[in-house]
Design goal:
single chain; 200 residues; alpha+beta; 4-stranded antiparallel sheet; 5 helices; 8 strands
Length: 200
């Protein structure tokens, strides 16, 4: 009888110990959970304020030498207003690439944009598509009374070259300037040398 009671106490102690061990283990966090579960991290790209300042100057297209005051006035940059512009990513203008922003310059000539870091460029309406390129190539490929035949290699380079290229950087002012000098009427056609008469 005494032996049976001792066995009972021994077995009870083992069971109690096993239960306490299981409870202790279940109260501890799993190693897998502690090391592999991580909270979701928001995925976003920071944008930066960009300012493009567009101005224009003029060319004297008269005959006799003008007064210096007139030349100084033409050479003084003024806001380039009311002009359509287009923004693309990259460094080379490809008319098949998407336009990411566009608009018309205001009276101030200032364009404000919010862009991610990277390379961008601006083109005006005559470079946003192949339309103007094709028009002047067809018209001047053989030249005319006042123009030499258009240089196609030069025209290809003209189309692919941005009017303003700029790089948006973190922690930078990101202010970029472009001055457009308005040519005389006989110099408006790119890559087609003018050979006609000039003003007296």
């Amino acid at each position: 009888m005494k032996n049976n009671i001792q066995k009972l106490y021994t077995n009870t102690g083992k069971i109690t110990g096993a239960l306490m061990l299981c409870m202790a283990l279940s109260a501890c966090p799993s190693k897998h959970v502690a090391t592999e579960e991580t909270p979701d991290v928001a995925d976003y790209t920071r944008k930066h304020s960009v300012e493009l300042r567009l101005t224009k100057t003029g060319s004297y297209c008269g005959g006799a030498a003008p007064p210096q005051a007139m030349l100084d006035e033409l050479a003084t940059p003024k806001p380039l207003s009311g002009v359509q512009f287009y923004i693309r990513k990259g460094t080379t203008n490809k008319t098949s690439d998407p336009v990411i922003a566009d608009g018309t310059t205001l009276a101030s000539g200032i364009i404000s944009l919010d862009l991610e870091e990277g390379d961008y460029f601006l083109v005006f309406i005559n470079k946003v598509s192949d339309r103007y390129y094709n028009e002047i190539y067809e018209k001047f490929k053989n030249g005319d009374a006042n123009h030499a035949p258009i240089d196609k290699a030069c025209l290809d380079k003209w189309l692919s070259t941005p009017d303003l290229a700029f790089t948006v950087k973190n922690d930078a002012a990101n202010i970029f300037m472009l001055n457009v000098n308005e040519p005389c009427p006989w110099n408006e056609i790119p890559c087609a040398e003018y050979r006609g008469p000039l003003p007296p």
